[in-house]
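A quick aside before the break. I want you to see a complete sequence-to-structure record at least once, exactly as it would be stored in a machine-readable document. Don't worry about memorizing anything.
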Amino acid sequence: MQSYVRRLLYLGAILAPVALCALLEHSKGQDRPSPAELFVDVTHPAGISWRHFNGESPDRLLIEAMGGGVAFLDFDQDGRLDIFLVNGGETPRGKSEAPVRNALYRNLGDGRFQDVAQRSSADHLSFYGMGVAVGDCDNDGFPDMFITGYPECALLHNNRNGTFTDITSKAGVRNGGRWAASAAWFDYDRDGFLDLVVCNYARFSLDNPKRCEYNGTPTYCEQKEYEGLPLTLYHNNGNGTFTDVSAKSGLEKQVGRALGVVSIDVDGDGWPDLFVARDASPNLLLINHHDGTFQDAAVDAEVAYDANGNAKAGMGVDAGDVNGDGRPDFVVTNFNDEYH
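That is the input. The structure line, written in tokens, reads:
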């Protein structure tokens, strides 16, 4: 009931100034026409019918509560953005009637899309999929895809002919044994090759899952029941391989339940920094020291906790110059009843 009342008060706080502005406009004889519809759902006419499978089961495993990632990319370099959708996976008692497949929808240019995932060899994963980060990791002009998940990740190299090849093992970016939620490509040392940061969420096991109940009924455990994990940072060697520099960079010390990440130059020094949104763990603002190391400045910047000193349930994060002052601003999405 209290949550419902808070939402009504919040809604009232939003609507009150809107109503006042409308009244003032009307008093000036400046009645505005009804706003045009901005967005129309074109999923069905576009030919997109893919559905995500999360392995829901009576065990109520926390991983089931996570959605799949999506990316817009021009994988065939025809000038039109295509769509890649990451599927989840099966759990011990959550099986799919059909094979669990990703989708790669090629933009046909007439408002329609065609799923070419199987043809491109990007449809199947050997693990439970989570997110996707797109970047040209070998500077050949075609975007590659890094897919996060549990208990490993995958790097799909774009072959420039409409197909992808899994080069995870050769590249050395499997991130094995960890639950990776998201990732971001960025050239942290400015050597001309994209490096990779991976947001690892929590220690988790399908073989020995945590059990939680509410009034005798199995339920999803609170995220605080799970120990957080450190970030992973891979340095691009420029020859198709990567080196794990998590310890050297200091990111290995940043233990918590990381979910979202964005890279942008926060302090205007020309070097890319990182903002990491974390779930019931303080957010991170990792400043690049130009020497391969990072230092967290989130507490000083007042973005680690909320006004009451609590770590909120950060889900996703994005950056942009909202007010046009030349400096990046951030938006962080949080869980139920926590404002963004």
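Two observations worth writing down. The longest helix spans residues 2-27. Residues 1-30 have pLDDT under 50 and may be disordered. We'll return to this after the break.
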